[in-house]
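ok trying again, last paste got cut off:
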Amino acid sequence: RPRRAQRRATGMEPSKPAAPAATAVPELVSVADAPDPAQTTLSLRFSPVSEVLPLEFSQQHWPSMTFSKGRLLVSDCKKTVWVDPRTGTQGSGAETPSPHRLESVNPATGEVLVANIGSAVPNLSWSKINTDTWTMTPVGLRPGEEVPDILLFTGRGEERVRYSYATKRLERVGGGGEVLESIKPQVTIAEALLATDGVIFCNKTGVFFWPFGMQHAVLLAGHASAAGEADGYGWRARFGALMRPTFTGGRFIFVRDRPSGNAAPASRLVRVDVRTDEVRSVGVEDFNLANDFVSMVPVDEELYVLVRKAQSGPGGADGLRILRASVHGESGPALTRDWRAVDLTEEVRPLAFRLADGSSLHFSGRALAARSEYFRRMLASGCRETQEREVDLRGDPGVGRAAMEDLLRFVATDAFEPADRSPEHAFKVLAIADKYQLPRLRALAEARLCQGLRRDNVLSYLGRVFRSDGALERACWALLEEQGRDILQENQSCLPELIRENPDLAQALITWTP
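nice, full thing came through this time. structure:
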């Protein structure tokens, strides 16, 4: 497996070891571990950015959108307009005699690379638009060079990345046409886009990343050939028939998927976190994803979507519009529901947690009661902790300050983003989430541990969650199902200790057949 440092150097550092190379992905047909509560649908709430754009919609020449120099650029394949995402102000851009499609942006110059398409052009050709002057110039090819099917500029002068369906080679090429490096992926690339010092590409069932300087691509999410519909982390996620991904250097890739295959509409919108390889389906209520979606581009903390109509009420104008939403989505419905139950007329009475290291943490008792059944019952019972407004944990060294702070932050935000990203810390949070009856926090801690699950730690992890019937235990058994013989052989030296510490698990492994 590629080392984490190799992806850190590319600017796409994950918080877990990198996924297997595309050539090493096991041929799985289904995902063994069931979805856990942390993998609930993410909800994006969109709001309008622009009025109806002065562009036409055509099924034959699908409109496209990209972002350059602080402006959204939208083309209906003949005319391009720009939109200021902050104010919604519009302006005219380039017009071309032949149909074209906005493909990518040179990160250094802001020039937009366009593919010239349609009956007026006998073969695919490439041009670039200067967004200051709106002039279009052809992209020159060296003598004898075939027109690539996919073309990207890296931002280093005229250096580019190209891919041809004929050769199936992904190449980084210098300004003079010399090949600087190349790979031949084990999948046929359907779409590709530029990332920091590398290329993100996809086939129908997987999203991959080629870091410049490496001899192969790594799998970010999905699978090289197995189709399905499942959220999850890395190779545990499944896609049916991916369409064009979009990424502008932030934290998230967004991509549409057709769960039922190529013949079906793209009814699933997916967010891929490049730091953690987490795949989450996105819920959309403000337009019809299968029928009205046209294009999208994430910019900083927001996702901009081009739709051909939006829910604007009876009599609303129909046409191309731009909508936007936070890439982080809305707070979960559970958080909203729990906080709505808080009586704000009640006097604020903090609850103190006295910890074994001598420190104390203070938090709202009514917030704890709203979010945790354990604290709801405790504070309603009239017990000593209720009277003294103090929970004495000084005799419990298993509850550390860092873990308790993360629990309290989760109560307030419904999120688990610990400063300490070690597995040991996640296990501590998992334990106190169980103790204080916070199932979603448990699921989030388990999900973080699933990210780092490997052949060299799966037996250790399984020993700590054996018979919990949680997502982490299911993921451990799933990995053993795939690579169990190799795992047992590689960890022979650890088996005697496992037998001493967890004889029930040892017995289960003896009777289990990989």
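cool. Confidence is low (pLDDT under 50) at residues 1-39, 311-317. The two ends are 22 Å apart (CA to CA).
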